[in-house]
What we know:
27% of the residues lie in helices and 22% in strands. With 321 residues, the protein is of the alpha/beta class. It has two domains: 2-128 and 294-305, NAD(P)-binding Rossmann-like Domain (Rossmann fold, 3-Layer(aba) Sandwich); 131-287, Dihydrodipicolinate Reductase, domain 2, CATH 3.30.360. A seven-stranded mixed sheet has the order 8-9-7-10-13-12-11. A six-stranded parallel sheet has the order 2-1-3-4-6-5, covered by helices on one side. Strand 12 (270-277) and strand 13 (280-287) form a beta hairpin. Helix 5 (131-145) packs parallel to helix 7 (192-202). The radius of gyration is 19 Å and the shape is globular. The two termini are 36 Å apart.
Amino acid sequence: MIKIGIIGGAGYTAGELLRLLLWHPEAEIVFVQSSSHNGQAISKVHKDLLGECYLNFTPANFEAVDVIFLCSGHGQSKSFFEKNKLPENLKVIDLSMDFRLENKEHEFVYGLPEMNKEAIAKAKYIANPGCFATAIELALLPLAKHQALNEEVHVTAITGSTGAGQAPTETSHFSWKNNNVSLYKAFEHQHLAEIKESLCKLQNSFKQAVNFIPVRGNFSRGILASVYTQCQWSLIEAMVHYQNYYQDHPFVVISDANTDVKQAVNTNKCILHLEKHGDKLLIVSTIDNLLKGASGQAVQNMNILFGLPEDLGLRLKPVAF
């Protein structure tokens, strides 16, 4: 059994992580830490776990676990490493953006299994990708692999309200969010840096812009990304390249029919749909932002780290309606 600790256990990603790990056949949750809820029952905070989880929030005990998941907010993981001395053999999976970009000053491997599976298997520390980044990168990796990204990329992607985290903000409370859609961080979203870095790893020559328009949706969870660029491939050629690239990756599905958010919600899947319009290739990419975009991918990385089947504990059922 893999002994597990969770840091920052009160937020959305930690709640999803708990839901997955409680039923994972090789996982044992040793501690769940929360500075704001210490001593309280976890099911008092994550109410969907009532009757499923009987643990309380407790202080961290790094010596008692094999891996920890960092689920605190962005910027807090760097602070965590500054304040804590960890056992030499302890593995870390960080769900923040603090260590996603390559840097000689840290040991983190970027945790996108569809690109870095071999490196993840040998790693000590994993930086879990961002949710938008996951959807967009999976839409573009086969193009980069074949050196076929030679023009600007255009992306419009809509995300559910859980993408903004649990703390209420001016743009996340119900009366503003309901029956409303809005743009934010156009052309400057924080996930752009990791997207560009990942694409350049496969295609050094890619210097063109990724024009990204993020959209806030009036639903709880899921991401639908519409991605297009000029491409000389026919639709049949594109389908072959995408199917070949993802044939050994269990969570990426190529769909002949256009996809929608509900197909991916409550699963660890990324569903891709390809269309050709003149000289442009359109890729529609759909994920659950809390699963393949966060906690599900974190468990997928844990499975790889410990030599388990990649999909163990992650064969979840989509929401039908």
